[in-house]
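sry for the spam today, last one i promise. struct tokens for design, 159 residues
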């Protein structure tokens, strides 16, 4: 397996395609390295968490993710008899933050059908990769049951 890159630092937008996209102008990343397991025994250096602060013209958002965690929710309600009700439409979700070789991938989706991609649905996949010149390439692919698929590519340089 290739080594996991460290994305820590302050990043400034160099280019975004399409140019009309509303991508963050700056990103601050904190990615602590773990060298011991919870019992204190040594482990190969690994990244288990990532904190991302995104600065756009409109706002600053902060998010924290556990790397290697895959999960989701199953929506619904329970009536007085204890059985699930289909009204109103339930919203299910899935999420994952995983390594694909030396790329970090963030996935998020919601759906009202029985499986992802059914009913009213949205999908978002964000892929981070360090380029040979040290720049950070972020590709964000989005799609939904109401909008066409779109991919935004952004390149950042570390300050």
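last one done:
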């Amino acid at each position: 397996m290739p080594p996991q890159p460290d994305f820590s630092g302050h990043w400034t937008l160099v280019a975004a395609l399409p140019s009309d996209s509303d991508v963050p102008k700056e990103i601050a990343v904190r990615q602590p390295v773990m060298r011991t397991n919870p019992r204190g025994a040594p482990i190969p250096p690994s990244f288990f968490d990532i904190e991302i602060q995104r600065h756009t013209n409109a706002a600053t958002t902060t998010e924290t993710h556990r790397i290697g965690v895959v999960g989701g929710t199953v929506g619904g309600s329970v009536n007085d008899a204890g059985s699930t009700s289909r009204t109103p439409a339930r919203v299910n979700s899935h999420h994952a933050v995983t390594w694909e070789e030396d790329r970090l991938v963030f996935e998020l989706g919601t759906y009202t059908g029985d499986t992802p991609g059914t009913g009213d649905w949205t999908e978002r996949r964000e892929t981070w990769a360090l380029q040979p010149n040290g720049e950070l390439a972020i590709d964000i692919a989005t799609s939904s049951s109401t909008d066409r698929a779109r991919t935004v590519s952004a390149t950042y340089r570390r300050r």
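The mean pLDDT is 90. ok im logging off now
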